[in-house]
Amino acid sequence: MIHADSVLLTDLYQLTMLQGYWQEDMRDSATFELFVRKLPRTRNFLIAAGLEQLLAFLEAFRFTDEECLWLRQCGYFQADFIDHLARLRFTGAVWAMPEGTVFFPNEPIIRVTAPLAEAQIIETRLINLMQFQTMVASKAARSVLVAPGKLLTDFGLRRAHGAEAGLLAARACAIAGFSGSSNVLAGMRFGIPMYGTMAHSYIMAHDDEAEAFERFARAQPSNVVLLIDTYDTLAAAHKVVALAARLASSHLRISAVRLDSGDLLALSREVRRILDAGGLADCRVFASGDLDEYELERLIHAGAAIDGFGVGTRVTTSEDAPYLNCAYKLEEYAGRPRLKRSAGKVTWPGCKQVYRSYDPQGTMRQDIVTLEAEVQAGEPLLRPVMQNGHRLAPPVRLAEVQARVRQQLQALPEPLRKLSAAAAYSVTVADGLRRLAAKLGAPPLT
Amino acid sequence: MIHADSVLLTDLYQLTMLQGYWQEDMRDSATFELFVRKLPRTRNFLIAAGLEQLLAFLEAFRFTDEECLWLRQCGYFQADFIDHLARLRFTGAVWAMPEGTVFFPNEPIIRVTAPLAEAQIIETRLINLMQFQTMVASKAARSVLVAPGKLLTDFGLRRAHGAEAGLLAARACAIAGFSGSSNVLAGMRFGIPMYGTMAHSYIMAHDDEAEAFERFARAQPSNVVLLIDTYDTLAAAHKVVALAARLASSHLRISAVRLDSGDLLALSREVRRILDAGGLADCRVFASGDLDEYELERLIHAGAAIDGFGVGTRVTTSEDAPYLNCAYKLEEYAGRPRLKRSAGKVTWPGCKQVYRSYDPQGTMRQDIVTLEAEVQAGEPLLRPVMQNGHRLAPPVRLAEVQARVRQQLQALPEPLRKLSAAAAYSVTVADGLRRLAAKLGAPPLT
Question: If you count residue pairs, one on A and one on B, with CB atoms under 8 Å apart, how many are there?
Fold first, then answer.
């Protein structure tokens, strides 16, 4: 129904600006950087995600014949300019933090250098792709941090903001450390393990709950997970025990039950007791329904007998922070650094790099934002990923990104791993960058 | 990059349930209804939106050869069942509230009657499509209500949750009464008027702000809107006045200026004064930046000199309520009404209708939820839109939906039109429906 990769998925002003640049023959090289201005109140760090989709977008960038035809007749643009658009490709360079990198405000996470029109026209979709996955991965990582050893799965598709949000949220959750997703397309497209067995409607379509359980178990013998809260959760748990005995003769076992409503803490413990007493100690208890990292922490801390969680709407929509205050800013054009001075929106000028240092135990200690030429000690976080419009490496494997997140979360200072607000991680600005900002007339920046 | 209309954009459990239904030969007719359980704290009403995309999805529903091939090798399903999926089409009936209808909790807005597998498999995408546009249209309508006579445009694409969210949010805002969108694809696909001229990067790429203004005006003579907050807003307003004099000899005029940062109230009034003093009384002032209905109301009430607003992120993401507590529930199967009794999630059983009555002035007075056969006085809100898998009318025109919203907002009781929380609109439940719920063992429902 939609062309997610249409280059017309952009703001009109990108095209009107390009017409201006084209008329003025402004073709020099420009550098733009994507960064987040400040953390949401409920985040201590962010995780970069979405680069893979961005690079695919840049490689495929072109206006189709159909799009050019429509632009010609929409009345906004000159015919010669449409001819220019028809030839436009992305031929620039991209430096980026690898997907899965922890980052902080005012650190560039993407740096694009290309002829002005190319670097400009990609802005809208670049932000659209990067901010969403970054936002969801950053939210999902908090669930991962509070639920070590638990199985976490993404159940958010139905209340995701459209198709692409559902698909890419599954990917962002997998990056952050979830074990899988209910999303079948995410399974097909990204190889993400799929989870899920039945909804209440399956139980309700049968005249009897116990009959529904048994029929389902016989239809899906390899993975029997039964939803037990449709009518009376504890009564259903007893039915599960009775069913297990009947199934044993067919060498079938019930691998888990799922709770989706009510007092998950109390119910999980009672259900666990019923299952254990019924000889089903290896039957796991899975829970879902309005969960997020706060509720996970509460349940786990209180001793809920829950082995895995289906986390949906609140993570997929990043409910407590459904957008990031991010910007893609012109930092340099025609060899000269550029600076915006709008109230409350001043940015650091010039092409930049970020260096990270660690303490001897491998814990992140400090980041320093520098001009590109101003080399510092530490690990440079921005790396070249595209040159002349071509990727410098094959598409990243999800497992590689997942491994990076695991390593990054381990290296996080302990206070940042908590759900509660921590003192800000130390991000300093190098002297050369400060001098440049002052020279360009920036008001005092922190 | 994504197949938004792939039927694999679903939860795995839909497929495992279908395999169960198929094995059990459960092919009888089922009725499911979509409804919202409760309003977000910051909404007094909701506006139904998304039906057009849902009907297109249902008409096109089929598993492609590529998808069937992948399902065969993913290891979750039986080969015969995949053959069954390959033949599956949606052949059912749909009743729905027309797009643009105001509705309230526990009122069905979509009712689907189809063979069980067909009514089940569409659940995930149905919710995904309906809840997003409904959520955004309902949020955007609040801006429309507080800003009568102002030009409102959607600027939300970049921070929308992916491609489809950006596209469909533009549509939802247009439905609610916005004049247009920055989204070019929304212009192409839905004929939504496009707005937008320049970003800060355009100004910054030039060495001089006044030069940037003049070049832009000469490049886009038909619609000169200048962004004046890149460096110093008031100084830029004076440059606009000076430029207008220079442009007059070329018969060019500056139609508007845009503010995107700072104290929009104070700046708009000072800019208005500068423009008026410079003879530019017909140059309009447009504002953007972190706006939502609360900020619009504040600015307008305080007397800001702003003619139009670009409303973006906060509306597109429905920032204060980024999801709706909605459900698509089995109400009837094989001729028997069905009832879920999960704690806190009890629903009204059976196939239902909603009747709305009005006072003599045409203001909405009360809704009553009934069993389908239990005809009441008033306007029935659910109407047949699809039969045997085919639409009963051509695709709806956006203008028709916009007209319905205008009419509906006029008919809203005054307290519901406010941003502050109003007493709930009266939605009662007819006696026959109450009796059925009691007979099925529902706990007391309000």
Answer: 347
- pLDDT tens across B352-365, in order? 999 999 999 999 99
Distance (Å, whole) CA B428 – CA B446: 9
Nearest CB among B32, B194, B201 relative to A12 is that of B194
Q: Smallest CA–CA separation between A39 and chain B, in Å?
A: 15
Whole-angstrom CA distances from B42 to B38, B314, B323, B416 are: 11, 13, 12, 11
Least CB-CB distance to A330: which of B9, B74, B204? B204
CB contact under 8 A, A4 and B163: yes
Q: Which residues of B touch A162 (CB under 8 A)?
A: 4, 128-129, 132, 161-165, 167-168
pLDDT tens per residue, range A364-405 = 999 999 999 999 999 999 999 999 999 999 999 999 999 999
- Tell me how crowded residue B425 is: count the other CB atoms within 10 A of its CB: 20
Backbone angle region of A286, left / alpha / beta, with phi > 0 → left and psi within -120 to 50 → alpha: beta
How many other CB atoms are found less than 10 A from the CB of residue B65? Answer: 9
Per-residue pLDDT, A4 = 64
Tell whether B78 is covered by a domain: yes
Q: Calculate mean pLDDT across residues A243-267.
A: 96
Weakest mean pLDDT among A191-200, A343-352, A357-366, B159-168: A343-352
The CATH number of the domain holding residue A379 is 3.20.140.10
Question: Are residues A287 and A161 located together in one domain of the fold?
Answer: yes
pLDDT value at residue B342: 77
Same domain, residue pair A265 and A279: yes
| A446 domain residue, yes or no | no
**Upper half-sphere CA count for residue A444 (Cβ side, 13 Å):** 1
For residue A181, give the CATH number of its domain: 3.20.20.70
Closest-CA distance, A181 to chain B, in angstroms, reads 8
Query: Residue B10 has which token pair?
Result: 């679903």
The dihedrals phi and psi of B34, each to the nearest 5 degrees, come to -100, 130
A192 and A212, same domain (yes or no): yes
Render pLDDT for B109-141 as a digit per residue (tens, 0 to 9): 999 999 999 999 999 999 999 999 999 999 999
Statement to judge: residues B284 and B332 lie in one domain = no
Name residues whose C-beta falls within 8 Å of residue A119's C-beta, 6 or more positions apart in sequence: A30, A31, A32, A92, A112, A113
- Closest CB to A166 among B128, B230, B344: B128
pLDDT tens for residues A112-169?
999 999 999 999 999 999 999 999 999 999 999 999 999 999 999 999 999 999 999 9
Distance from CA of A130 to the nearest CA of B (A): 9
Q: Which residue range(s) make up the domain with A223?
A: 140-316
Contact state of B182 with A13 under an 8 Å Cβ cutoff: yes
pLDDT digits (tens, 9 = 90+) for B256-314: 999 999 999 999 999 999 999 999 999 999 999 999 999 999 999 999 999 999 999 99
**Inter-chain CB proximity A13 and B198 less than 8 Å:** yes
Distance CA A99, CA A89 (A): 24
Report the half-sphere exposure of A420 (CA within 13 A, side-chain side). 3
A243 located within any domain = yes
Give residue B443's pLDDT band: very low, low, confident or very high (50, 70, 90): confident
pLDDT at position B339, please? 85
Domain count, chain B: 2
Query: Does one domain contain both B57 and B99?
Result: yes
Does the model's pTM come out above 0.95?
yes
Which residues of chain A lie closer than 8 angstroms to B344, CB-CB? Answer: 261-262
User: How wide is the angle at C-alpha B260 spanned by C-alphas B258 and B263, nearest 5°?
Assistant: 110
Examine residue B71 and state whether it is found in any structural domain, yes or no.
yes
Q: CA nearest A316 in B: which residue?
A: B161
* Contact between residue B288 and residue B260 where contact means Cβ atoms under 8 Å apart: yes
B146 backbone dihedrals φ, ψ, rounded to 5° = -90, -5
Please list every residue in chain B whose beta carbon sits closer than 8 Å to the beta carbon of residue A132: 160-162
